[in-house]
Structure formats: C-alpha cells, structure tokens
C-alpha cells in the first residue's frame, strides 16, 4: 500500500468521522460549527434527554415511564447492530450509512410531532435503528482505512467526535429547551440527517473494500439471500426480552425466562441452520474475542452510569439549572477524548499486544467510580467532582483504545471485519444495558428511598409526588422544606448504589479482560478460521 494511498484513506476517514457525528447533532447551528470548527457530535440522542427528560415527561404525563425515553433508542440500536453490520459487508457500506440516516430522519419527525408516550417511543425506536447502522459501519471504516501506525490516532479521533457530542447535546438541549421547547430539538434532526446522509454517500469511496468483497459479483437479490435473517430475528428477540425484564421499577420474570429460551435457539440456528451466521461460531470460539466483547459490555455499562447520571446528580442534588447541569459532561468527555488521543498519538503506533496497558487502565477505572459514589452529595467539593469525572473519562478512553488494538492482535486479519462488527455490537449493547439495567436499578433504589423517607417524615400521602420525582429530577429544585430534603437524600442514595454497582461490575470485567491473554491466534485457530472462510467463499461462488 503506497503512502499516498494511506494518506488519502486517512483523509476519507476524518471526513467520514466528522459527517457521521454531524448526523447526530441537534444544535440548529451544527452545520456551521462542524464545517468551520470541527466539533462533531454523536450520542446526543442519549445525552439530550438528561436535561429535557423532565419537560417531556410532564408534557406526555409519563413520569414513571421516563426510563424508556433513552432505553427504547438504545435497545433498538443494540438489537439491530448485528444485522446492520452484516448488511454492510454483504451489500454496501455507503448504502447502509445512507439508509440509516433516512431512518434517523423518519424517527426525528415522529419524535418531534409526538403527542403521546407511545408515539414518542416509536420515534425513538426508529432513530435507534438508524443509529445502529451509522455507528457500526463507522467503526469498521475507521479500522479498515488506516494503517497500523496511525490506527490508534484515528480511533481516538472517532471516539472524541462521539464523546464531544455527548457533552454538547446535554448543554445545548438544557439551554434551548426552556426557550423553544423540546420538540424543535428533535425536529431539527430531520433536515440535518438528510444532509448528513448525502454527505456520507459522497464521502465514502464507491469502491471501498471492493477488492476483498467476495459478494461483488452477486446480484442484489442473491446478496440479500446470504443474510441470516432467522439468526438476526432470534438475536433481536433475545436482547429485547432481556432488557425488558430488567428495565423499570420491577424486575419482570416472564421476559427474562423467554429471553433465556430464545438464546439457545439463536445459538443452534447459527451452528446448524445459518449458511452465513450473523455471528460466526468460529469467531466466538476465540477466547480473546469473546472475553474482550464481554469485558467491553461491562466496562461501558459502568461508564454509561457516569454519562447518564452525573447530569441527574447536578439537577436533583446540586439544584443546578438544566443548561448548567448538562455541562458536567464536558470534563468527563474531555477526559475520554484526551485519554484516547494520548494513547493513540504517543503509544499505539504498531501492531502487537497491549495486554498490560489495557489491564492497568481498566483496573484504575473503578477507583474513580468508588470515589464518585461517596462524593455524589449536596455538600461535596465541586472541584473534586470535576476532577474525578475527568479521570474517569480519561481512563475509559485509553482503555477502549488499548482493548481494541489488543483484540486485533489476538485475531487473524482475515476476520478483523467480523470481529470489529462484533465488538461494535457489544459496545452498542453496553448503552442499552447501562440504560435499562442501570436505570432500573437506580429507579428501584430511588423509589424505595423516597417511600421510606416520606414515611419516616410523616408524609405518607406523597404517592403522586413520588411518581413524578422518579421521572423528573428537575422537580426536586421546586420543592421546599422536608419534601426537598427527603428527595435530595433519596437521589443521593440512588446515585451511591448505582456507582458502587459500577465498581463491582468494573472489577469483574477487568478480570475477564485479564483472561484474554497476550498471545496471538494459534496455528489450530488459524486453520479453523481458514476452513470457515473457504467454506463461505465456496457457498458464495455456488450462488
């Protein structure tokens, strides 16, 4: 590969990363900001709700259902990620990205015109479906279009673009919502998604990866026939049922049981029925791949606790205004960008093992969560809090960079696109699990603390207030006297329990990452993968 070709690919990567982030942006001035200052935004579909949730819940009378505002988006994104990753390989990365932006446009229109909770959730699901294709394909493109020497840098840039969006989404939404309402914040997404879609269509090379694409000689009909739809449906059903069971104020047994029944059906389908599985069994046989993916899920779940609930802390416990509360995400995401970029610029400049670096950064991460658990109070020093969320973000950014390049070392180059798609899918799971499971856990602790607190204070008839407080942290600031004291303490209890849970989870996944090992694939694993790849190529040729 010539140096000029690598430089051109690198420029394409930067262009793609910026436009992908733009497609999530909600600020009415985002087009100009991204064009002239390069401040891309991703994941604001999540963070925007941390400062607008109270207004949406009040307008839709859905205080007790507010957890679904974010969970519905993330569940859709995670559930569809494997299918979108597969479609990008079989069909075209350009078309998958463009189609995803159209879905996001449709979801934004539905969300911004919603007059009921159910319609709002439909819009969020459509938006999440679009987000699945964009995030999965973007990660694959960044890896495939950069050299090993500059791979860490561009991974850091892509992650930085996404994490900048998390910060800006909460801040901008908090500032604009009191002036223009929450609906225009979602409505502006529609035209921006269309513009971003055409930008993606023209920025991604038409012949990208055409040389190594074994499906290039097939018709569209034959390409679509290669997709494992039954496996995709079973995987989607498994994930959705699992998340439904663990979301909300109560754990639901029936969805969890049905999810446990659907999982073995999915595995059997992949082994015995699917000609080209959504998740090839040969890849899952790799200990390094499986454990890295599982560790990534747990690690990012703990990270999402900070992203979801530090603005809630600022709103409910500190009594900050929505725009100011959203700004608490700026230091943690600045840390995330800094950690990833520093690791990529100064260290990740080669192929090979990054075993110890991954473990050290992951082992330090739960220390920051432990400190946050005990300083998330109304009277803690704000400087200490800002420092801890910054350190939390820096360790997360560095850990994800190291874990990704170490995974590439553990697997054969032949299966890197599949492995990357799988890792991206599991990273998507983390957002859903963090929102649904973490949100459900936080909600249960908060509900119990509110009920017990008001009962001890002799204020038993506060059922309607408790219902509203569960979905509106900003409501705490409007309370007075004992009612406010109880509500603040309840939110402190919920946050402490949530962060302590994140500590335990982060320790477990660090041990899982430690079990991945530091050696590359063995000769036996290489032979197994080669046989699987040759078998798939023979099937395609026979089509």
Automatic annotation (TrEMBL):
Predominant cellular place of this UniProt entry's protein: membrane
Recorded superkingdom: Eukaryota
GO CC terms, sorted: fungal-type vacuole membrane
GO MF annotation list: basic amino acid transmembrane transporter activity
Domain (Major facilitator superfamily (MFS) profile): residue spans on this chain: 16-489
Coiled-coil portions: none
UniProt entry keywords in alphabetical sequence: Membrane, Transmembrane, Transmembrane helix
InterPro entries in the cross-refs: MFS, MFS_dom, MFS_trans_sf
Transmembrane segments: 95-115, 121-143, 155-176, 188-208, 229-246, 252-269, 290-312, 324-346, 358-376, 382-405, 417-442
Annotated membrane topology: Multi-pass membrane protein
Short name of any one Pfam family annotated for the protein: MFS_1
Subcellular location: Membrane
Protein's UniProt keywords contain 4Fe-4S: no
Protein name: MFS general substrate transporter
Record organism: Trematosphaeria pertusa
Species classification: Eukaryota, Fungi, Dikarya, Ascomycota, Pezizomycotina
């Amino acid at each position: 590969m010539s140096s000029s070709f690598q430089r051109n690919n690198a420029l394409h990567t930067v262009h793609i990363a910026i436009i992908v982030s733009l497609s999530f942006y909600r600020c009415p001035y985002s087009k100009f900001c991204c064009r002239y200052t390069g401040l891309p935004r991703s994941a604001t579909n999540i963070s925007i709700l941390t400062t607008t949730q109270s207004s949406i819940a009040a307008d839709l009378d859905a205080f007790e259902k507010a957890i679904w505002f974010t969970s519905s988006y993330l569940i859709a994104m995670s559930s569809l990620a494997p299918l979108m990753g597969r479609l990008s390989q079989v069909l075209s990365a350009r078309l998958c990205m463009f189609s995803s932006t159209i879905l996001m446009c449709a979801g934004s229109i539905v969300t911004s015109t919603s007059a009921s909770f159910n319609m709002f959730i439909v819009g969020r699901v459509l938006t999440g479906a679009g987000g699945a294709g964009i995030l999965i394909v973007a990660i694959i493109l960044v890896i495939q279009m950069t050299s090993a020497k500059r791979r860490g840098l561009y991974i850091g840039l892509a992650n930085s673009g996404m994490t900048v969006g998390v910060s800006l989404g909460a801040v901008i939404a908090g500032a604009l919502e009191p002036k223009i309402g929450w609906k225009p914040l979602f409505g502006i997404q529609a035209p921006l998604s269309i513009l971003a879609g055409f930008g993606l269509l023209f920025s991604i090379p038409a012949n990208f990866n055409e040389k190594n694409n074994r499906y290039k000689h097939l018709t569209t009909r034959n390409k679509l026939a290669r997709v494992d739809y039954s496996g995709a449906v079973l995987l989607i059903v498994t994930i959705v049922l699992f998340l439904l069971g663990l979301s909300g104020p109560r754990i639901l047994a029936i969805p969890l049981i049905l999810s446990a029944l659907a999982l073995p059906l999915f595995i059997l389908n992949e082994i015995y029925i699917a000609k080209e599985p959504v998740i090839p069994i040969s890849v899952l046989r790799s200990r390094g791949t499986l454990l890295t993916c599982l560790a990534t899920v747990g690690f990012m779940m703990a990270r999402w606790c900070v992203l979801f609930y530090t603005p809630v802390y600022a709103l409910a416990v500190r009594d900050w205004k929505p725009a100011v509360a959203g700004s608490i995400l700026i230091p943690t995401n600045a840390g995330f960008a800094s950690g990833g970029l520093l690791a990529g610029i100064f260290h990740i400049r080669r192929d090979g093992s990054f075993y110890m670096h991954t473990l050290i950064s992951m082992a330090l991460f739960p220390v920051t969560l432990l400190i946050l658990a005990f300083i998330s109070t109304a009277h803690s020093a704000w400087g200490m809090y800002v420092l801890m969320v910054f350190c939390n973000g820096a360790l997360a950014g560095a850990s994800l960079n190291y874990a990704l390049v170490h995974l590439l070392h553990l697997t054969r180059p032949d299966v890197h696109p599949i492995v990357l798609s799988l890792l991206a899918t599991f990273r998507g799971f983390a957002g859903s699990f963090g929102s649904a499971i973490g949100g459900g856990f936080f909600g249960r602790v908060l509900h119990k603390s509110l009920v017990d607190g008001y009962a001890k204070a002799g204020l038993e008839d506060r059922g309607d207030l408790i219902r509203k407080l569960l979905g509106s942290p900003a409501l705490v600031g409007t309370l007075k006297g004992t009612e406010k004291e109880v509500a603040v303490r309840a939110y402190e209890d919920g946050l402490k329990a949530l962060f302590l849970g994140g500590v335990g989870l982060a320790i477990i996944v660090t041990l899982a990452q430690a079990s991945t090992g530091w050696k590359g694939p063995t000769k036996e694993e290489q032979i197994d993968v080669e046989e699987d790849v040759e078998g798939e190529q023979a099937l395609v040729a026979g089509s």
